[in-house]
Amino acid sequence: MERTLIMVKPDGVQRGLVGEIMSRFEKKGLQLAAAKFMKVSQELAETHYAEHKGKPFYDKLIVFITAGPVFAMVWEADNAIALTRAMIGKTDAVEAAPGTIRSDYAVHTNLNLVHGSDSAENAEREIALWFAPEEIV
Ligand code: ATP
Asked: Where is each Nucleoside diphosphate kinase-like domain found (predicted)?
């Protein structure tokens, strides 16, 4: 069984898409292992997106992710990382396949509604960063 960190970003929360996004993962058959509604500190944002430091979009990305509350979750399934990445769709909404979350609901690359861990290594790092062990069921 594999675990992944999924986060509905501030644009997804503001647009009222938390329930819709959770519903897609539930209906697919993944198991929810943890969830919380929270504001992202500057420190958490910078640690989470450390790999993008120095890129042209980095500063805006940090401002965006700390601008409003997010809904962070841990989901569990065989191949949870690949499954949820496929359901989320490509970063650029234009390239995201029809039926994916980003294709169905997002217009912009920088307002792309949802984050999902992209590797087993990052999933482990991100889950430990966002959740205390006792918050995970
Ligand atoms: P995420 O990590 O949020 O799940 P992702 O894995 O699809 O998204 P990454 O390449 O890891 O994409 O980029 C992280 C985030 O940085 C993107 O989700 C997007 O919000 C922002 N981003 C990436 N590339 C660009 C870009 N060219 N212009 C603006 N924002 C970008």
From this structure: 1-137
- The question of whether 115 is a catalytic residue gets the answer yes
Identify the helix (H) or strand (E) that includes residue 75.
strand 70-77
**By residue range, what is the domain housing residue 37?**
2-135
Instruction: Tally the domains of the chain.
Output: 1
CATH code of residue 65: 3.30.70.141
What's the CA dihedral at 119, 121, 126, 129 to 10 degrees? 180
Q: Quick one: which of 63, 81, 73 has its CA closest to 130? A: 73
110: pLDDT strictly greater than 90? no
Q: Kindly provide the ipTM of the predicted complex, given to two decimals.
A: 0.88
Q: How far apart are alpha carbons 8 and 34 in whole angstroms? A: 13
